[in-house]
Amino acid sequence: MALIIGVVTIISMVSVTAGIRSMVTDAISGMNGIMVWEKDALDQPWSYLSTDYEQKLESISGVRVALPEVFGFITEIDGDTARGSEMMMGMTGVMGIDPVKEQEREGTFYGMEMDKGRWLKPGDKSVVILGNEIADNYKKRIGSTIELDGKKLKVIGILKESQMFGGYMLAPIDVARELADLDSDIVNDYTIQAYNPQDQGKIAKIIEFKYDDLQAMNSQSAGEEMSDLLNTFDMVFLVISLIALLTAGVVIINTMLMSVMDRQKEIGVLKAVGWTNDDILKLVLIESLLLGIIGGIIGCIIGSVIVTIINSAIPFSLTLTPTNILGAFIFAVSAGLFGGLYPAWRISRINPIDAIRME
Amino acid sequence: MAKKKMLEAREVKREYIMGKTVVRALRGVDIDIEQGEFVFIIGPSGSGKSTIMHILGALDHQTAGSVTLDGKEMARMSDWQLSMIRRNKIGFIFQNFNLVPSLNAIENVMLPLMTSDMNKTVLEARAIKLLKLVGLGHRIHHRPTELSGGERQRVAVARSLINEPEIILADEPTGELDTKTGTGIMQLMRKLCKEKGTTFVIVTHDTEYIQKGDKIFHIRDGLINQEIYKGGKVIE
């Protein structure tokens, strides 16, 4: 039982860290540059920057380009209340970028990839690219029309399936501004790309030094911070696993000890009729190994079911790989084997007469 | 014809320490048992009769004296060697049968050799043959709980024979059986002794069976105080 719980714990923990890691890595690897937004703003959608900053930021030495970005939320799709993505707590987001300036971007906006259709290009008006969830939910294809808060747009592209952007739409910046109720001289943030990515940290500092009302986040350092955090997570996870292993081991020792002590008499008979100490040792070890294997299988099944249930209940997904399951299984089997060693050794040395006399 | 000497005990002593007192269970016992003999060891409870049987059966060590089986001194053997002796040369029958409840009759009979290299089919065939020999051919798949006391002891007798032992040691084999069933078991053992030439050493306090014995050792207070041989020869 404890073994099963141990295995379930390990499977769930591994899945959580693996899930968070993959999501964070997605987000960070997509963010290529320095993110600049209003200081103390809750998040990009609540940061309002004047378009004047575009020139100011581009004049900083080392800066190659400042790319304006707009974030907004949609309340109605095709005349009905928008069904948002779970990832965004029920909201549906639209992001706007400037198709002209985007040509200077290295990589794509947040690493987005197209599944069908095409990317935005200069001169696009009243068009939109849909995240895969929105396309699925509203059954939109390339060439379909989608009505966002009363504004009709033509679907020109659908993004590849992704956890981060499934519930987002991407439109030319003017369209997005209109949907987000922003004036034409306001953007939510800028992504700054340097000539030399190694200068990003320095540039971010210069921006924050020069402009009191801005904050700049360097994607590299953010990545490093996240990676540190995840490593801490992994350490915590490792410690918990070890505790689980230890607990399971102790419980197996206890279970096997009880089980062999209950059968002292039988084992005494086996010894009396000619079983060697090694035969008894093997017998008990095989039993506890079987206990480990059975506990491991049940634990892996329950763990996988729990992870699946959690996945359907929370917005981001836990990642369960065959390697993780195999790891948890090996853990169970080794706990079984090690937990069986002491009871096996102890009972194999029992004196047959004492054991047989026992009632 | 001079019979081969099976077991020889010389000045065997066995002391136990219980708390602060030393219990002298055996105080210098001499026993000679020859091949094919049907031997009884009798005596009141606490006399040391089970102790001497355990020592003769390689289940216990004496604290002094020597015990030789087939001319080999057992005190010098390792645990493993003693296990091998019990597996290959000795069969045991216990008072309370000591069958494994979760195994059926055949499996219980096969038990002593289950971990040997012996082919399982051959072993099973041998077990069935022995169960037929003890009159349980019709109950081979029954578990101990489905068998009567006499039947259980027959399974135990069959088990003691599976390794074709030279000597079978029985500790109060009729102790938990009624007189009729007990007599049946005793007759079965006598028959096996005659037909197979197996040596039997039977510890009992039921004196009604002992007339059938070739030798009777009477043990009291850790000493043999009387040896009775077939034909009435008595050594005090």
The fraction of residues assigned to DSSP E strands of chain A is: 15-25%
Taking all residues together, what is the mean pLDDT of chain B?
Answer: 88
Strands of the biggest beta sheet of chain B: in what spatial order? Answer: 6-7-8-3-9-10-11
Q: What integer value in Å does the Rg of chain B equal?
A: 18 Å
The helix content of chain A, as a percent range, equals 40-55%
Topology:
The complex is a heterodimer of chains A (359) and B (236).
Chain A: H1 2-30, E1 34-38, E2 49-50, H2 52-58, E3 63-74, E4 76-77, E5 80-81, E6 92-97, H3 99-102, E7 114-117, E8 127-130, H4 132-137, E9 145-148, E10 151-159, E11 168-172, H5 173-179, E12 186-187, E13 189-194, H6 200-210, E14 214-218, H7 219-262, H8 264-272, H9 277-313, H10 322-348, H11 352-357
Parallel strand pairs in A: 6-11, 8-10
Antiparallel strand pairs in A: 1-13, 1-14, 2-12, 3-6, 3-13, 4-5, 7-10, 8-11, 9-10
Helix pairs in contact in A: 1-7, 1-9, 1-10, 7-10, 9-10
Chain B: E1 5-18, E2 21-34, E3 38-42, H1 49-56, E4 64-69, E5 72-73, H2 79-88, E6 90-93, H3 105-110, H4 120-133, H5 149-161, E7 167-171, H6 179-196, E8 199-204, E9 215-220, E10 223-229, E11 234-235
What are the defining features of this structure?
heterodimer, A: 359 residues, alpha+beta, 2 domains, two-stranded antiparallel sheet, 11 helices, 14 strands, elongated, B: 236 residues, alpha/beta, seven-stranded mixed beta sheet, four-stranded antiparallel beta sheet, 11 strands, 30% strand, globular
How would you sum up this structure in a few lines?
By secondary structure, chain A is α+β, with helices and mostly antiparallel strands.
